[in-house]
Amino acid sequence: MLFYAALILATGVERLVELRVSTRNAGWAFARGGVEFGRNHFPFMVSLHTGMLLACLLEVFLLQRVFLPWLGWPMLVAALACQALRWWCIGTLGPRWNTRVIIVPGLPLVNRGPYRVLKHPNYVAVIAEGVALPLVYSAWITALVFTVVNLVLLLRFRIPVEEKALEFGLAQTVRNV
C-alpha cells in the first residue's frame, strides 16, 4: 500500500509541475495576444483531477483494496505510458501547451508528434490514466466514477471549447495570410 501511496503522491507532484509549466506557457501566450476560451469549466476540471487522486487513496485505504498482480502490474505500465504520452504532447506543443484553452491568433495548427495521428492525444492519456491509475491497486469505484464524470466533462464541455478555439485560431491565421 505504501508503494501505491507513493505513486499517487508522485502523480500529484507531476500535476503541480504541469501547472507550473502551464502558468509559464499562459504568460507566453497572453504576451503574444493569446485568447482564453472556456474559463468557467477549468476550476471544476482541476477539482475533478485532484479528487481522483484523493479518491484513489481513500478507496484503497478505507475499503481495504488489495493489489492484484495480474491487474496491478499491467495498469502500472499503462499509467506510466499515459505519463509518457502526456509529456510527449507537452514537448510537441512547447509553449503552446496549456491546461487552460488559450489560442494565440495567427499560429498554425500543430500537426507533428502525437498530433499527426490523434486530434486530442492528451485526452487519450487522461482517459486511459483515469482507468489505469486507480486500478493499479484495485480502486475500481474511483476508476468508474472518474471515467464517467471525466468523459461527460470532456465530451460535453472541454472538447467543444477547444474545437471552437481552434476554429478561431485558424480563422485568424487565414485572415493574416
UniProtKB/TrEMBL annotation:
Pfam families xref list: ICMT (PF04140)
Superkingdom per UniProt: Bacteria
Gene3D superfamilies: 1.20.120.1630
The protein, known as: Isoprenylcysteine carboxyl methyltransferase
Subcellular location: Membrane
InterPro entries the UniProt entry points to: ICMT_MeTrfase
One term under GO cellular component: membrane
Topology within the bilayer: Multi-pass membrane protein
GO MF annotations in UniProt: protein C-terminal S-isoprenylcysteine carboxyl O-methyltransferase activity
Keywords for the protein's UniProt record, in alphabetical order: Membrane, Transmembrane, Transmembrane helix
Lineage: Bacteria, Bacillati, Actinomycetota, Actinomycetes, Micrococcales
Bilayer-spanning residue ranges: 42-63, 70-88, 135-155
Main localization, broad class: membrane
